[in-house]
UniProtKB/TrEMBL annotation:
Binds 5S rRNA, forms part of the central protuberance of the 50S subunit. InterPro entries: Ribosomal_uL5, Ribosomal_uL5_bac-type, Ribosomal_uL5_C, Ribosomal_uL5_dom_sf, Ribosomal_uL5_N. Residues 103-182 form the Large ribosomal subunit protein uL5 C-terminal domain. The keyword Membrane does not apply. The keyword Disulfide bond does not apply. Pfam families: Ribosomal_L5, Ribosomal_L5_C. Belongs to the universal ribosomal protein uL5 family. It is found in: Plastid, Chloroplast. Its main location: plastid. This is Large ribosomal subunit protein uL5c. It comes from Chaetoceros muelleri. Keywords: Chloroplast, Plastid, Ribonucleoprotein, Ribosomal protein, RNA-binding, rRNA-binding.
Length: 238
C-alpha cells in the first residue's frame, strides 16, 4: 500500500487538483492500458466519466415558491448551472399529485463543469461530512454507473450556513462510458471498470480492499455468483 504522505502521493494529488481532465487523458488512461492489457486492449474500452446527474426531490414542498426558488439558487451555486424543474408524468390521487405538478430539480453536468464538480466533490466535500468512513462499492447499478446520496447541502463550500432555511440532500449519479467487447459485457465487468477508474481518481471507496485477497478475476466472479445464489435462496425461503 502506498504511503499517503510520500512525495509521489502528494504530486499525484496536486496534478489531479490542477486539472483532473488533463490528468485522466495524459496519465490515468495510459496507466490503465499499460497495467491492465487484458482488460483494456482497445483505447475505447478504457472507462471514462461521461456525465454527472444531480437530483433533488422536493415532493409537495415544491409547490412553495420560496422553497423552490431557494433550491434553484443552491443548485446554481453548487453546480454552476441552472437546474431543470422535474414534473409529475401522471396524476396519483393517493399522494395528492396532479399531472405536470412540480416535484423536484435535476441537472446534468458535462465537460469542464463536470470535472470541476468532481474535483470539488472528491477533495473538499467528502472531508466536510461528519464521521465519514467512505463510500460502498455496492452503489453501482447494472449499467456500471455509481449513485450516492448526500444528506445536506451545507458540506459544499458555496453554501453559507446562515442562508439555509431547510436542510436538504442530493442524489448524485456518475455515468461512465466504456465499450466492452462481447466477452466482457456482463454487469460484473461494467462495475469493475467503474471501480478501477474511481480508485484512480481518488474516490473514497471503503470496501474495495475486500477483493484484494483474490489473485484473479475468476475468483472474484465466483464470489459474486455465490452471493447471488445465496440471496436468491434466502428470498425463496421467505
Amino acid at each position: 500500500m502506498r504511503n499517503p504522505n510520500s512525495l509521489e502521493e502528494v504530486a499525484e494529488i496536486q496534478s489531479l487538483l490542477t486539472d483532473i481532465k488533463k490528468e485522466y487523458n495524459d496519465g490515468i488512461r495510459a496507466v490503465l492500458e499499460k497495467n491492465h492489457p487484458n482488460l483494456f486492449r482497445n483505447v475505447h474500452t478504457v472507462p471514462k466519466l461521461k456525465k454527472i446527474h444531480i437530483n433533488r426531490g422536493l415532493g409537495l414542498s415544491a409547490q412553495n415558491t420560496n422553497i423552490l426558488k431557494k433550491s434553484i439558487q443552491e443548485f446554481s451555486l453548487i453546480t454552476g448551472q441552472k437546474p431543470i424543474i422535474t414534473r409529475a408524468k401522471k396524476a396519483i390521487a393517493g399522494f395528492k399529485i396532479r399531472e405536470e405538478m412540480e416535484l423536484g430539480l435535476t441537472t446534468t453536468l458535462r465537460g469542464e463543469k463536470m470535472y470541476a464538480f468532481l474535483t470539488k466533490l472528491i477533495f473538499f466535500t467528502f472531508a466536510q461530512i461528519r464521521d465519514f468512513r467512505g463510500l460502498s462499492v455496492r452503489s453501482f447499478d447494472k449499467a456500471g454507473n455509481y449513485t450516492l446520496g448526500l444528506k445536506e447541502q451545507l458540506i459544499f463550500p458555496e453554501i453559507d450556513y446562515e442562508d439555509v432555511d431547510q436542510v436538504q440532500g442530493f442524489s448524485i449519479t456518475l455515468v461512465f462510458s466504456a465499450s466492452n467487447p462481447k466477452t466482457r459485457s456482463r454487469t460484473f465487468d461494467r462495475v469493475l471498470n467503474g471501480m478501477i477508474l474511481l480508485k484512480f481518481l481518488r474516490f473514497p471507496l471503503k470496501d474495495c480492499g475486500y477483493y484484494e485477497k483474490y489473485t484473479s478475476l475468476p475468483e472474484v466472479n465466483q464470489v459474486w455468483d455465490k452471493k447471488r445464489h445465496l440471496r436468491r435462496k434466502r428470498w425463496s425461503q421467505e
